Automatic annotation (TrEMBL):
Gene3D superfamilies: OmpA-like domain (3.30.1330.60), Tetratricopeptide repeat domain (1.25.40.10), TolB, C-terminal domain (2.120.10.30). Residues 419-541 form the OmpA-like domain. One of its GO terms (cellular component) is cell outer membrane. Keywords: Cell outer membrane, Cell projection, Cilium, Flagellum, Membrane. It comes from Salegentibacter salinarum. The keyword Membrane applies. SUPFAM superfamilies: DPP6 N-terminal domain-like, OmpA-like, TPR-like. The keyword Membrane applies. It is found in: Cell outer membrane. Signal peptide: none annotated. It holds the Pfam family OmpA. This is Flagellar motor protein MotB. It comes from the Bacteria.
Protein backbone atom coordinates (compact mmCIF):
# COMPACT_ATOMS: atom_id res chain seq x y z
CA UNK A 1 0.00 0.00 0.00
CA UNK A 2 2.87 2.36 0.86
CA UNK A 3 4.36 1.77 -2.59
CA UNK A 4 0.95 2.47 -4.15
CA UNK A 5 0.72 5.85 -2.38
CA UNK A 6 4.23 6.70 -3.47
CA UNK A 7 3.42 5.79 -7.06
CA UNK A 8 0.22 7.86 -7.01
CA UNK A 9 2.08 10.82 -5.49
CA UNK A 10 4.78 10.68 -8.15
CA UNK A 11 2.10 10.37 -10.84
CA UNK A 12 0.25 13.39 -9.43
CA UNK A 13 3.42 15.48 -9.37
CA UNK A 14 4.20 14.42 -12.92
CA UNK A 15 0.73 15.35 -14.18
CA UNK A 16 0.92 18.74 -12.43
CA UNK A 17 4.31 19.43 -13.96
CA UNK A 18 3.03 18.38 -17.39
CA UNK A 19 0.01 20.67 -17.02
CA UNK A 20 2.18 23.63 -16.03
CA UNK A 21 4.55 22.94 -18.91
CA UNK A 22 1.63 22.92 -21.35
CA UNK A 23 0.31 26.19 -19.94
CA UNK A 24 3.74 27.81 -20.29
CA UNK A 25 4.09 26.62 -23.89
CA UNK A 26 0.66 28.04 -24.72
CA UNK A 27 1.58 31.38 -23.11
CA UNK A 28 4.97 31.50 -24.85
CA UNK A 29 3.34 30.97 -28.24
CA UNK A 30 0.82 33.75 -27.62
CA UNK A 31 3.59 36.06 -26.39
CA UNK A 32 5.73 35.37 -29.47
CA UNK A 33 2.68 36.15 -31.63
CA UNK A 34 2.33 39.45 -29.72
CA UNK A 35 -1.11 38.45 -28.51
CA UNK A 36 -0.29 40.12 -25.22
CA UNK A 37 -3.74 40.21 -23.61
CA UNK A 38 -4.22 36.47 -24.12
CA UNK A 39 -0.59 35.80 -23.17
CA UNK A 40 -1.04 37.59 -19.83
CA UNK A 41 -4.12 35.50 -19.05
CA UNK A 42 -2.19 32.32 -19.85
CA UNK A 43 0.89 33.29 -17.83
CA UNK A 44 -1.26 34.17 -14.82
CA UNK A 45 -2.45 30.53 -14.72
CA UNK A 46 1.11 29.31 -14.20
CA UNK A 47 1.42 28.52 -10.50
CA UNK A 48 5.20 28.40 -10.17
CA UNK A 49 6.32 31.44 -12.14
CA UNK A 50 10.01 31.30 -13.00
CA UNK A 51 12.14 34.19 -14.24
CA UNK A 52 11.12 33.92 -17.89
CA UNK A 53 7.42 33.71 -17.02
CA UNK A 54 7.67 36.81 -14.84
CA UNK A 55 9.59 38.70 -17.54
CA UNK A 56 7.05 37.91 -20.22
CA UNK A 57 4.05 38.49 -17.97
CA UNK A 58 5.39 41.89 -16.95
CA UNK A 59 6.01 42.79 -20.59
CA UNK A 60 2.54 41.60 -21.65
CA UNK A 61 0.99 43.97 -19.12
CA UNK A 62 3.42 46.77 -20.00
CA UNK A 63 2.74 46.56 -23.75
CA UNK A 64 -1.02 46.75 -23.16
CA UNK A 65 -0.74 49.74 -20.77
CA UNK A 66 -1.80 47.79 -17.67
CA UNK A 67 0.81 49.58 -15.62
CA UNK A 68 -0.24 48.66 -12.09
CA UNK A 69 -0.11 44.98 -12.98
CA UNK A 70 3.18 45.44 -14.86
CA UNK A 71 4.81 47.15 -11.88
CA UNK A 72 3.64 44.43 -9.52
CA UNK A 73 5.05 41.66 -11.71
CA UNK A 74 8.35 43.45 -12.40
CA UNK A 75 8.75 44.07 -8.66
CA UNK A 76 8.40 40.34 -8.01
CA UNK A 77 10.85 39.63 -10.83
CA UNK A 78 13.55 41.80 -9.29
CA UNK A 79 12.91 40.58 -5.75
CA UNK A 80 13.57 37.02 -6.92
CA UNK A 81 16.01 37.40 -9.79
CA UNK A 82 17.65 40.82 -9.54
CA UNK A 83 21.20 39.69 -10.22
CA UNK A 84 20.40 37.71 -13.41
CA UNK A 85 17.70 39.87 -15.04
CA UNK A 86 18.59 41.95 -18.09
CA UNK A 87 18.66 45.73 -17.50
CA UNK A 88 15.90 46.41 -20.06
CA UNK A 89 13.35 45.00 -17.62
CA UNK A 90 14.45 47.55 -15.03
CA UNK A 91 13.91 50.27 -17.65
CA UNK A 92 10.33 49.13 -18.21
CA UNK A 93 9.80 48.64 -14.48
CA UNK A 94 10.79 52.27 -13.88
CA UNK A 95 8.39 53.50 -16.57
CA UNK A 96 5.52 51.43 -15.17
CA UNK A 97 6.19 52.98 -11.75
CA UNK A 98 6.15 56.47 -13.30
CA UNK A 99 2.73 55.74 -14.77
CA UNK A 100 1.23 54.93 -11.37
CA UNK A 101 2.92 57.83 -9.58
CA UNK A 102 5.53 55.83 -7.63
CA UNK A 103 8.27 58.37 -8.34
CA UNK A 104 10.84 57.51 -5.67
CA UNK A 105 10.91 53.82 -6.58
CA UNK A 106 10.96 54.78 -10.26
CA UNK A 107 13.98 57.02 -9.60
CA UNK A 108 15.83 54.19 -7.87
CA UNK A 109 15.29 51.78 -10.73
CA UNK A 110 16.00 54.28 -13.50
CA UNK A 111 19.18 55.34 -11.68
CA UNK A 112 20.26 51.70 -11.49
CA UNK A 113 19.55 51.31 -15.19
CA UNK A 114 21.30 54.45 -16.45
CA UNK A 115 24.09 54.70 -13.87
CA UNK A 116 23.11 58.34 -13.34
CA UNK A 117 21.38 59.99 -10.39
CA UNK A 118 17.80 60.33 -11.64
CA UNK A 119 15.58 62.58 -9.53
CA UNK A 120 12.06 63.17 -10.81
CA UNK A 121 11.33 66.08 -8.49
CA UNK A 122 14.53 67.93 -9.40
CA UNK A 123 13.93 67.31 -13.12
CA UNK A 124 10.35 68.55 -13.00
CA UNK A 125 11.28 71.58 -10.88
CA UNK A 126 14.08 72.62 -13.23
CA UNK A 127 11.98 72.06 -16.34
CA UNK A 128 9.22 74.11 -14.78
CA UNK A 129 11.46 77.18 -14.91
CA UNK A 130 12.72 76.78 -18.50
CA UNK A 131 9.85 75.30 -20.55
CA UNK A 132 8.88 78.04 -23.02
CA UNK A 133 5.17 77.25 -23.14
CA UNK A 134 2.29 75.90 -21.11
CA UNK A 135 -0.55 73.89 -22.61
CA UNK A 136 -4.19 73.43 -21.72
CA UNK A 137 -5.27 69.98 -22.90
CA UNK A 138 -8.80 68.65 -23.26
CA UNK A 139 -9.87 65.20 -24.35
CA UNK A 140 -11.84 65.30 -27.58
CA UNK A 141 -13.86 62.12 -27.15
CA UNK A 142 -14.52 59.74 -24.29
CA UNK A 143 -14.12 56.77 -26.59
CA UNK A 144 -13.14 53.81 -24.43
CA UNK A 145 -14.50 51.36 -27.02
CA UNK A 146 -11.73 52.12 -29.53
CA UNK A 147 -8.26 53.59 -29.83
CA UNK A 148 -7.84 56.91 -31.67
CA UNK A 149 -4.50 58.57 -32.45
CA UNK A 150 -2.28 59.78 -35.30
CA UNK A 151 -4.16 63.01 -35.91
CA UNK A 152 -3.06 65.30 -38.78
CA UNK A 153 -4.16 68.51 -40.49
CA UNK A 154 -5.98 67.90 -43.79
CA UNK A 155 -6.99 71.23 -45.30
CA UNK A 156 -9.93 72.48 -43.24
CA UNK A 157 -10.43 68.98 -41.85
CA UNK A 158 -8.35 66.59 -39.78
CA UNK A 159 -7.44 62.94 -40.23
CA UNK A 160 -6.83 60.35 -37.56
CA UNK A 161 -6.34 56.60 -37.16
CA UNK A 162 -8.87 54.52 -35.25
CA UNK A 163 -9.81 50.95 -34.36
CA UNK A 164 -13.53 51.79 -34.50
CA UNK A 165 -14.26 49.86 -37.73
CA UNK A 166 -15.71 46.61 -36.40
CA UNK A 167 -15.61 45.02 -39.85
CA UNK A 168 -11.81 44.79 -39.75
CA UNK A 169 -9.88 41.74 -38.48
CA UNK A 170 -9.03 41.71 -34.78
CA UNK A 171 -5.40 42.51 -33.98
CA UNK A 172 -4.09 40.00 -31.40
CA UNK A 173 -1.90 42.59 -29.59
CA UNK A 174 -4.85 44.48 -28.09
CA UNK A 175 -7.85 42.44 -29.35
CA UNK A 176 -9.20 45.44 -31.25
CA UNK A 177 -9.85 45.82 -35.00
CA UNK A 178 -6.96 46.86 -37.21
CA UNK A 179 -6.50 50.60 -37.74
CA UNK A 180 -8.21 52.60 -40.47
CA UNK A 181 -7.78 56.23 -41.50
CA UNK A 182 -10.67 58.67 -41.10
CA UNK A 183 -11.26 62.32 -41.87
CA UNK A 184 -13.50 64.63 -39.88
CA UNK A 185 -14.52 68.21 -39.32
CA UNK A 186 -13.32 69.84 -36.13
CA UNK A 187 -15.33 72.64 -34.52
CA UNK A 188 -13.83 75.57 -32.62
CA UNK A 189 -14.83 73.76 -29.44
CA UNK A 190 -12.98 70.61 -30.44
CA UNK A 191 -16.04 68.58 -31.42
CA UNK A 192 -15.59 66.02 -34.21
CA UNK A 193 -18.32 65.70 -36.82
CA UNK A 194 -18.79 64.26 -40.30
CA UNK A 195 -16.39 61.39 -39.52
CA UNK A 196 -15.70 59.62 -42.81
CA UNK A 197 -13.60 56.57 -43.68
CA UNK A 198 -10.99 56.99 -46.36
CA UNK A 199 -11.64 54.86 -49.43
CA UNK A 200 -10.79 51.17 -49.75
CA UNK A 201 -7.83 52.25 -51.87
CA UNK A 202 -6.29 53.61 -48.67
CA UNK A 203 -7.85 51.41 -45.97
CA UNK A 204 -7.35 47.65 -46.05
CA UNK A 205 -7.49 44.80 -43.57
CA UNK A 206 -3.95 45.79 -42.54
CA UNK A 207 -3.18 48.72 -40.22
CA UNK A 208 -3.26 52.21 -41.77
CA UNK A 209 -2.32 55.28 -39.73
CA UNK A 210 -0.30 58.51 -39.46
CA UNK A 211 -1.16 60.45 -42.61
CA UNK A 212 0.58 63.64 -43.79
CA UNK A 213 -0.28 65.80 -46.80
CA UNK A 214 1.31 68.19 -49.27
CA UNK A 215 0.26 71.82 -48.93
CA UNK A 216 -2.18 71.54 -51.87
CA UNK A 217 -3.65 68.29 -50.50
CA UNK A 218 -2.84 66.36 -53.66
CA UNK A 219 -0.18 64.06 -52.22
CA UNK A 220 -0.57 61.90 -49.15
CA UNK A 221 1.94 59.78 -47.21
CA UNK A 222 0.71 57.25 -44.66
CA UNK A 223 1.58 54.05 -42.77
CA UNK A 224 0.45 50.58 -43.73
CA UNK A 225 1.51 47.21 -42.42
CA UNK A 226 3.12 45.09 -45.11
CA UNK A 227 1.06 42.16 -46.34
CA UNK A 228 4.27 40.12 -46.54
CA UNK A 229 5.22 38.43 -43.29
CA UNK A 230 8.84 37.65 -42.45
CA UNK A 231 10.14 35.62 -39.55
CA UNK A 232 11.33 37.46 -36.47
CA UNK A 233 13.90 36.21 -33.95
CA UNK A 234 11.28 33.94 -32.36
CA UNK A 235 10.43 32.40 -35.73
CA UNK A 236 7.03 34.11 -35.88
CA UNK A 237 6.04 35.77 -39.14
CA UNK A 238 5.33 39.49 -38.71
CA UNK A 239 4.47 42.28 -41.11
CA UNK A 240 6.63 45.39 -40.81
CA UNK A 241 5.26 48.90 -41.31
CA UNK A 242 5.87 50.74 -44.59
CA UNK A 243 5.30 54.34 -45.66
CA UNK A 244 3.10 54.65 -48.74
CA UNK A 245 2.50 57.56 -51.10
CA UNK A 246 -0.80 58.32 -52.82
CA UNK A 247 -1.91 60.97 -55.35
CA UNK A 248 -5.30 62.59 -55.68
CA UNK A 249 -6.52 62.11 -59.27
CA UNK A 250 -10.07 62.98 -60.35
CA UNK A 251 -11.21 63.05 -56.74
CA UNK A 252 -9.81 59.62 -55.87
CA UNK A 253 -6.61 58.48 -54.18
CA UNK A 254 -4.56 56.66 -56.79
CA UNK A 255 -1.01 55.50 -57.66
CA UNK A 256 -0.52 54.11 -54.15
CA UNK A 257 3.03 52.82 -53.78
CA UNK A 258 5.45 52.04 -50.97
CA UNK A 259 8.40 54.41 -50.82
CA UNK A 260 11.62 52.97 -52.26
CA UNK A 261 13.53 52.97 -48.96
CA UNK A 262 10.93 50.86 -47.15
CA UNK A 263 11.57 47.17 -46.58
CA UNK A 264 10.01 43.88 -45.55
CA UNK A 265 12.90 43.46 -43.08
CA UNK A 266 12.33 46.60 -40.96
CA UNK A 267 9.72 49.28 -40.35
CA UNK A 268 9.39 52.84 -41.60
CA UNK A 269 6.54 54.77 -40.01
CA UNK A 270 4.91 58.05 -38.91
CA UNK A 271 5.75 60.30 -41.89
CA UNK A 272 5.65 64.09 -41.57
CA UNK A 273 6.13 66.30 -44.63
CA UNK A 274 7.78 69.71 -44.31
CA UNK A 275 5.71 72.77 -45.27
CA UNK A 276 7.50 73.18 -48.62
CA UNK A 277 7.28 69.46 -49.37
CA UNK A 278 11.06 69.06 -49.73
CA UNK A 279 11.73 66.85 -46.70
CA UNK A 280 9.97 63.88 -45.18
CA UNK A 281 10.60 63.02 -41.52
CA UNK A 282 9.81 59.53 -40.26
CA UNK A 283 10.70 56.90 -37.65
CA UNK A 284 12.44 53.62 -38.41
CA UNK A 285 14.30 50.70 -36.88
CA UNK A 286 16.35 50.22 -40.06
CA UNK A 287 19.96 48.99 -39.75
CA UNK A 288 22.18 51.69 -38.27
CA UNK A 289 19.54 53.02 -35.86
CA UNK A 290 20.65 54.10 -32.41
CA UNK A 291 17.77 52.36 -30.66
CA UNK A 292 14.61 50.41 -31.28
CA UNK A 293 13.28 53.34 -33.38
CA UNK A 294 15.04 56.53 -34.49
CA UNK A 295 13.93 59.71 -36.26
CA UNK A 296 15.14 60.06 -39.87
CA UNK A 297 14.78 62.64 -42.63
CA UNK A 298 14.88 62.12 -46.39
CA UNK A 299 14.94 64.64 -49.25
CA UNK A 300 11.91 64.65 -51.54
CA UNK A 301 13.21 65.69 -54.97
CA UNK A 302 11.22 67.70 -57.50
CA UNK A 303 11.34 64.81 -59.99
CA UNK A 304 9.57 62.52 -57.52
CA UNK A 305 12.68 60.63 -56.41
CA UNK A 306 14.11 60.49 -52.91
CA UNK A 307 17.52 60.97 -51.37
CA UNK A 308 19.16 58.66 -48.85
CA UNK A 309 17.48 58.61 -45.42
CA UNK A 310 19.60 60.42 -42.83
CA UNK A 311 19.55 59.57 -39.13
CA UNK A 312 19.12 62.75 -37.05
CA UNK A 313 21.87 61.63 -34.68
CA UNK A 314 22.38 61.05 -31.00
CA UNK A 315 21.09 64.40 -29.73
CA UNK A 316 17.60 63.49 -30.93
CA UNK A 317 17.87 59.69 -30.91
CA UNK A 318 18.64 57.46 -27.92
CA UNK A 319 19.09 53.70 -27.42
CA UNK A 320 15.32 53.53 -26.90
CA UNK A 321 12.24 54.69 -28.82
CA UNK A 322 11.93 57.91 -30.81
CA UNK A 323 8.72 57.96 -32.85
CA UNK A 324 5.92 60.18 -34.21
CA UNK A 325 7.97 63.07 -35.63
CA UNK A 326 6.12 66.22 -36.66
CA UNK A 327 7.84 69.09 -38.47
CA UNK A 328 5.92 72.34 -38.00
CA UNK A 329 5.56 75.19 -40.49
CA UNK A 330 8.23 77.06 -38.52
CA UNK A 331 10.64 74.13 -38.84
CA UNK A 332 10.37 72.96 -35.24
CA UNK A 333 10.63 69.19 -34.84
CA UNK A 334 8.32 67.59 -32.31
CA UNK A 335 8.65 63.90 -31.51
CA UNK A 336 7.88 61.28 -28.87
CA UNK A 337 10.57 59.49 -26.88
CA UNK A 338 10.91 57.21 -23.89
CA UNK A 339 14.72 57.43 -23.96
CA UNK A 340 15.17 61.06 -22.92
CA UNK A 341 14.39 61.87 -19.30
CA UNK A 342 10.73 62.64 -18.93
CA UNK A 343 7.57 62.12 -16.93
CA UNK A 344 7.17 58.47 -17.87
CA UNK A 345 6.87 56.30 -20.99
CA UNK A 346 6.56 58.31 -24.23
CA UNK A 347 6.87 62.08 -23.71
CA UNK A 348 6.69 64.81 -26.35
CA UNK A 349 9.93 66.72 -27.03
CA UNK A 350 10.96 69.55 -29.34
CA UNK A 351 14.12 70.46 -31.24
CA UNK A 352 14.69 73.37 -33.61
CA UNK A 353 17.37 74.87 -35.82
CA UNK A 354 20.11 72.29 -36.30
CA UNK A 355 18.44 69.98 -33.76
CA UNK A 356 21.42 70.32 -31.42
CA UNK A 357 19.25 70.54 -28.30
CA UNK A 358 16.18 68.60 -27.21
CA UNK A 359 13.63 69.89 -24.72
CA UNK A 360 10.75 68.19 -22.93
CA UNK A 361 7.46 70.08 -23.41
CA UNK A 362 6.66 69.80 -19.71
CA UNK A 363 3.94 68.33 -17.56
CA UNK A 364 1.13 70.41 -19.03
CA UNK A 365 1.44 68.12 -22.07
CA UNK A 366 3.17 65.02 -20.75
CA UNK A 367 1.91 62.51 -18.21
CA UNK A 368 3.23 59.27 -16.72
CA UNK A 369 1.75 57.37 -19.66
CA UNK A 370 2.33 57.52 -23.43
CA UNK A 371 1.91 61.02 -24.88
CA UNK A 372 2.62 61.19 -28.61
CA UNK A 373 1.53 62.18 -32.13
CA UNK A 374 1.75 65.90 -31.32
CA UNK A 375 0.87 68.43 -34.06
CA UNK A 376 0.43 72.20 -33.83
CA UNK A 377 -0.86 75.14 -35.85
CA UNK A 378 1.70 77.65 -34.63
CA UNK A 379 -0.14 80.66 -36.05
CA UNK A 380 -3.19 79.95 -33.89
CA UNK A 381 -1.29 78.26 -31.04
CA UNK A 382 -3.61 75.26 -31.16
CA UNK A 383 -3.02 71.62 -31.89
CA UNK A 384 -3.65 67.99 -31.05
CA UNK A 385 -1.94 65.01 -29.53
CA UNK A 386 -2.73 61.46 -28.47
CA UNK A 387 -2.33 59.91 -25.02
CA UNK A 388 -3.27 56.72 -23.22
CA UNK A 389 -3.26 58.41 -19.80
CA UNK A 390 -6.85 57.23 -19.27
CA UNK A 391 -6.24 53.65 -20.31
CA UNK A 392 -6.67 53.65 -24.08
CA UNK A 393 -5.35 55.88 -26.86
CA UNK A 394 -7.46 59.02 -27.12
CA UNK A 395 -7.21 62.34 -28.93
CA UNK A 396 -6.65 65.61 -27.10
CA UNK A 397 -6.91 69.20 -28.29
CA UNK A 398 -4.69 71.85 -26.73
CA UNK A 399 -4.04 75.56 -26.68
CA UNK A 400 -0.54 76.90 -26.08
CA UNK A 401 0.57 80.05 -24.28
CA UNK A 402 3.92 81.52 -23.34
CA UNK A 403 5.21 80.40 -19.97
CA UNK A 404 4.70 82.70 -16.98
CA UNK A 405 6.12 81.76 -13.56
CA UNK A 406 3.39 79.98 -11.62
CA UNK A 407 1.35 81.60 -8.90
CA UNK A 408 1.75 78.40 -6.87
CA UNK A 409 5.21 77.07 -6.10
CA UNK A 410 6.18 73.77 -7.65
CA UNK A 411 6.22 72.03 -4.27
CA UNK A 412 2.52 72.78 -3.76
CA UNK A 413 1.16 71.70 -7.15
CA UNK A 414 1.24 68.67 -9.40
CA UNK A 415 -0.30 67.25 -12.56
CA UNK A 416 -3.24 64.91 -12.16
CA UNK A 417 -2.12 61.71 -13.93
CA UNK A 418 -5.68 60.85 -14.96
CA UNK A 419 -6.81 64.24 -16.30
CA UNK A 420 -3.54 66.01 -17.17
CA UNK A 421 -4.69 69.13 -15.29
CA UNK A 422 -2.81 71.16 -12.67
CA UNK A 423 -3.97 70.53 -9.12
CA UNK A 424 -2.86 71.06 -5.54
CA UNK A 425 -0.22 68.59 -4.41
CA UNK A 426 -1.27 65.88 -1.93
CA UNK A 427 -4.86 67.08 -1.89
CA UNK A 428 -6.67 64.71 -4.22
CA UNK A 429 -10.42 64.46 -4.72
CA UNK A 430 -13.31 64.25 -2.29
CA UNK A 431 -16.08 61.71 -2.82
CA UNK A 432 -19.84 61.56 -2.32
CA UNK A 433 -22.37 58.93 -1.38
CA UNK A 434 -24.72 57.69 -4.08
CA UNK A 435 -27.30 60.32 -5.07
CA UNK A 436 -26.00 62.73 -2.39
CA UNK A 437 -24.35 66.15 -2.49
CA UNK A 438 -23.58 66.35 1.23
CA UNK A 439 -19.98 66.85 2.34
CA UNK A 440 -18.91 63.76 4.28
CA UNK A 441 -16.89 64.02 7.49
CA UNK A 442 -14.07 62.03 5.89
CA UNK A 443 -13.77 64.71 3.17
CA UNK A 444 -13.26 67.61 5.56
CA UNK A 445 -9.50 67.05 6.14
CA UNK A 446 -8.97 67.26 2.37
CA UNK A 447 -11.02 70.46 2.16
CA UNK A 448 -9.09 71.90 5.08
CA UNK A 449 -5.87 71.30 3.12
CA UNK A 450 -7.35 73.33 0.25
CA UNK A 451 -8.13 76.15 2.69
CA UNK A 452 -4.56 76.08 4.07
CA UNK A 453 -2.96 76.25 0.60
CA UNK A 454 -5.33 79.01 -0.58
CA UNK A 455 -4.45 81.04 2.49
CA UNK A 456 -0.77 80.54 1.66
CA UNK A 457 -1.24 81.86 -1.90
CA UNK A 458 -3.68 84.82 -1.86
CA UNK A 459 -3.73 85.04 -5.69
CA UNK A 460 -4.61 81.38 -6.19
CA UNK A 461 -7.90 80.65 -7.96
CA UNK A 462 -9.50 77.22 -7.91
CA UNK A 463 -12.16 75.54 -10.01
CA UNK A 464 -14.23 72.94 -8.21
CA UNK A 465 -15.23 70.42 -10.84
CA UNK A 466 -17.78 67.87 -9.63
CA UNK A 467 -18.98 64.66 -11.21
CA UNK A 468 -21.59 61.92 -11.03
CA UNK A 469 -21.52 58.25 -11.88
CA UNK A 470 -23.42 56.82 -14.86
CA UNK A 471 -26.51 55.75 -12.94
CA UNK A 472 -29.39 58.11 -13.62
CA UNK A 473 -30.32 60.29 -16.60
CA UNK A 474 -27.86 62.74 -18.13
CA UNK A 475 -30.00 65.69 -17.04
CA UNK A 476 -30.36 64.47 -13.45
CA UNK A 477 -26.66 63.69 -13.13
CA UNK A 478 -25.73 67.14 -14.41
CA UNK A 479 -27.88 68.75 -11.72
CA UNK A 480 -26.49 66.40 -9.07
CA UNK A 481 -22.91 67.24 -10.00
CA UNK A 482 -23.71 70.97 -9.89
CA UNK A 483 -25.12 70.56 -6.36
CA UNK A 484 -21.96 68.71 -5.33
CA UNK A 485 -19.79 71.50 -6.72
CA UNK A 486 -21.90 74.11 -4.91
CA UNK A 487 -21.71 72.33 -1.55
CA UNK A 488 -17.95 71.95 -1.91
CA UNK A 489 -17.59 75.66 -2.68
CA UNK A 490 -19.75 76.65 0.28
CA UNK A 491 -17.59 74.65 2.67
CA UNK A 492 -14.51 76.57 1.52
CA UNK A 493 -16.32 79.92 1.78
CA UNK A 494 -17.54 79.06 5.28
CA UNK A 495 -13.92 78.41 6.22
CA UNK A 496 -12.67 81.82 5.12
CA UNK A 497 -11.97 81.63 1.37
CA UNK A 498 -13.26 84.58 -0.64
CA UNK A 499 -16.01 83.46 -3.01
CA UNK A 500 -14.45 85.43 -5.90
CA UNK A 501 -11.46 83.05 -5.90
CA UNK A 502 -13.66 80.00 -6.48
CA UNK A 503 -15.68 78.71 -9.40
CA UNK A 504 -17.83 75.61 -9.38
CA UNK A 505 -18.84 73.53 -12.35
CA UNK A 506 -20.80 70.32 -12.71
CA UNK A 507 -19.75 67.87 -15.41
CA UNK A 508 -22.45 65.28 -14.87
CA UNK A 509 -21.33 61.80 -15.91
CA UNK A 510 -19.30 63.03 -18.91
CA UNK A 511 -15.81 62.61 -17.41
CA UNK A 512 -15.47 59.17 -15.78
CA UNK A 513 -12.07 58.11 -14.46
CA UNK A 514 -12.69 54.54 -15.61
CA UNK A 515 -14.79 52.69 -18.19
CA UNK A 516 -17.99 52.75 -16.13
CA UNK A 517 -20.04 54.68 -18.70
CA UNK A 518 -23.22 52.61 -18.44
CA UNK A 519 -25.74 52.38 -15.55
CA UNK A 520 -24.98 48.68 -15.09
CA UNK A 521 -21.93 46.47 -15.37
CA UNK A 522 -19.60 47.92 -12.71
CA UNK A 523 -19.10 47.30 -9.01
CA UNK A 524 -20.17 49.78 -6.35
CA UNK A 525 -16.52 50.69 -5.76
CA UNK A 526 -15.96 51.39 -9.45
CA UNK A 527 -18.98 53.68 -9.65
CA UNK A 528 -17.93 55.43 -6.43
CA UNK A 529 -14.66 56.56 -8.03
CA UNK A 530 -16.62 58.85 -10.36
CA UNK A 531 -18.72 60.57 -7.65
CA UNK A 532 -16.17 63.25 -6.85
CA UNK A 533 -15.10 66.87 -6.65
CA UNK A 534 -11.73 67.84 -8.13
CA UNK A 535 -9.69 71.00 -7.45
CA UNK A 536 -7.98 72.54 -10.48
CA UNK A 537 -5.62 75.53 -10.42
CA UNK A 538 -7.20 78.09 -12.73
CA UNK A 539 -4.75 81.02 -12.77
CA UNK A 540 -3.95 81.92 -16.38
CA UNK A 541 -0.40 80.56 -16.33
CA UNK A 542 -1.62 77.11 -15.28
CA UNK A 543 -5.04 76.62 -16.89
CA UNK A 544 -6.75 78.97 -19.31
CA UNK A 545 -9.94 77.05 -19.91
CA UNK A 546 -11.95 75.25 -17.31
CA UNK A 547 -13.89 73.01 -19.65
CA UNK A 548 -13.05 69.47 -20.67
CA UNK A 549 -15.06 68.02 -23.52
CA UNK A 550 -16.34 64.48 -23.68
CA UNK A 551 -18.47 62.69 -26.22
Amino acid sequence: MKNLYSTLFILFIGLAAFGQSAEIKKAEKLFAQRAYIDAAEAYEKVVDKDQEVLQNLGDAYFYTNQMESAAEVYRTLFLRHDDITEPEYKFRFAHSLRAIGEQEEADENMSDYTGDDINYEDFARELDTVAPHVYTTEQIMNNSASADFGIAFYGDRITFASTRNQERPVYPWNKQPTLDLYSAEMSEDGELSDIVLFSDEINTDEHESSATFSEDGQVMYFDRNSEKRVKNEEGIRVGHIKIFRAEMLDGEWSNIEALPFTSDEYSTEHPSLSADGSKLYFASDMPGSEGSFDIYVVDVNEDGTYGEPQNLGTVVNTPHREQFPYISEEGVLYFASDGHQGFGNLDVFRAEGDFSEVQNLGNTVNSGHDDFAFIIDEENQKGYLASNRRGSDNLYVFTREDYVPPVVDYDDRETNLETGRQQLRDVGNIYFDFDKATIKDESKPTLDKVVTIMNKYPELQIEIGSHADARGSDQYNMGLSERRAASTLEYLVENGIDRSRLTSKGYGESMPLNDCTEPTGCTAEQYAKNRRSEFTIMNDENNTDSEEMED
